[in-house]
Write a structure and sequence with these properties.
This protein is an alpha+beta fold. It has four helices and six strands, in the order H-H-E-H-H-E-E-E-E-E.
């Protein structure tokens, strides 16, 4: 069984029966790469806006909902939790670390696009502040943008210094 799983990964790029990680084909992962990076950066941004880890609502809308969004949620958690620990956080252990810290994550999928053709929206229900949400999108399937922080609309390229 392990040999078949390894062959599947090496030939087709599909990870089967991974613990705590969805099975996603390599070509799908390539399409998701920009969204993964964006979700992680948004999670990190949210982590820098609050003083302690808190519950998170993540809403996906538009064409990004065609993919398995669980991996995007893992990326957002990785970004958030990296702000609050000196232990390594990755896509696999992020959900368990969040659970251990008492962080509840609600994931919502809206199939029709509302403001943008695709949108990742992270909001913090426990924070009663103007800076309690971050919106991000990928324009033309290649340009990452932060388009809203709290009540402020903007057009910012999320870059790591």
């Amino acid at each position: 069984m392990i040999a078949k799983q390894m062959v599947s990964y090496l030939l087709e790029g599909v990870i089967i029966n991974a613990v705590n990680f969805p099975s996603i084909p390599m070509e799908t992962m390539a399409k998701l790469r920009l969204h993964l990076d964006l979700a992680e950066r948004m999670g990190s941004m949210v982590g820098q806006m609050v003083r302690q880890p808190c519950d998170m609502n993540i809403t996906y809308s538009g064409y990004v909902t065609e993919f398995d969004t669980r991996v995007l949620t893992h990326a957002a958690l990785k970004g958030l939790l990296s702000c609050f620990t000196d232990r390594p956080v990755n896509f696999v252990n992020a959900p368990n670390l969040a659970k251990a810290k008492g962080i509840k994550v609600q994931e919502t999928i809206q199939f029709q696009a509302v403001e943008y053709t695709n949108l990742i929206r992270i909001d913090l229900p426990g924070i009663k502040d103007d800076l309690n949400e971050v919106w991000g999108t990928v324009f033309a399937k290649k340009y990452q943008r932060i388009v809203r922080i709290g009540k402020i609309f903007l057009d910012a390229v999320p870059r790591v210094p």
